[in-house]
Amino acid sequence: MARRHRDVLRVLIADIVTGTRKSGEQLPRETDLVEEFGVSRGVVRECIRALEERHLVTVKHGKGATVRSSDYWDMLDADVLTAVLESSWGPAVLGEYLECRRILEVEAAGLAAERASEHDLERLADAMARMEATVRRPPGPASEAMFHEADLMFHTTLISATGNHALSSLVERIHKALLAARYPTARPEYRVERSLPEHQAILKAVAAGNPRAARKAMATHLATIAEYLREYAGDRDGYAVASGE
After folding, report:
1. pLDDT digits (tens), the chain, 245 positions
2. CATH class of the structural domain 3-72
3. CA spacing 20 to 30 A to 27: which of 124, 147, 176, 244?
4. Which residues pair with 60 in a beta bridge?
5. For residue 218, what are the contacts with CB-CB under 8 A and spacing of at least 6?
C-alpha cells in the first residue's frame, strides 16, 4: 500500500472511530474526497474498499459508502485498533484485549507445560534471551520495538507449544493487533524487577512440565499488566479492567 494511500486511509479510519463521521452517515462522494485529500480517484476507491474490508463502511451501488456502527468493526485489524487506542474509549478496549489474553493464555500455559517439545522450549528460551538482551540496550524507540517483538514471540511460541493448530492460527490472525495493544501498557522501568522474572517463571514452569505452576505464573503476569492498565486508564469515566478473579 502506497504511503499516500495509507495516510488517507488512516485519517478516514480515525474520523470514523472518533465519531467525526458518525454511524449511519454517508461518506462524501468520491469526487469530494479527491478534492479534500488531494489524491487521485483511484486512491480514494482503494481507501473505501479498505474501509469496507475492515467493516467500517458498507457500500451500495448508487448510494455510496455508509459508516457502520462499532459493533461491526474488525477490532483485530491493526489499523482499526491503533485508531481506537488513541480514542477516548481506548482503555476499555485494552481491557477487552486483556480479558481475551486471560481466556487464551492462562490455559495455554498449562497445555504448553504438558505438551512442549524440546524445540518449543528452545524457542521460548531464545525469546526470553532476546527480551533480556533488549533490556540491556540504551532506551529508545528501536529497543522498545525490539522488546515488544521478543515479548510477542515468547507468547506466540507458548501458544504454539500447546500443539493446538486452531489456537495457533487464531493468534497468528491477531499478531499485529496484539503488538499494537501492548504499547500503552508498557512499563520499561519495571522490566528488570517484574516483567523479566514473570516470564522466567512461566518458562521455568513449562520446562518443568508443571501445568499448575505455568497457569499460576501466567495469571500473575497478566495481573501485572492489568495493574499497568489501571494506571494508564486513570480515572476515566466508564472504564473498568476485567479482573478475571
Report:
1. 577 788 999 999 999 999 999 999 999 999 999 999 999 999 999 999 999 999 999 999 888 999 999 999 998 888 898 898 888 888 888 888 888 889 989 999 999 999 999 999 999 999 999 999 999 888 888 888 899 889 989 999 999 999 999 998 887 776 666 666 666 777 888 888 899 999 999 999 999 999 999 999 999 999 998 998 888 877 444 444 443 33
2. mainly alpha
3. 176
4. 64
5. 105, 106, 108, 109, 202
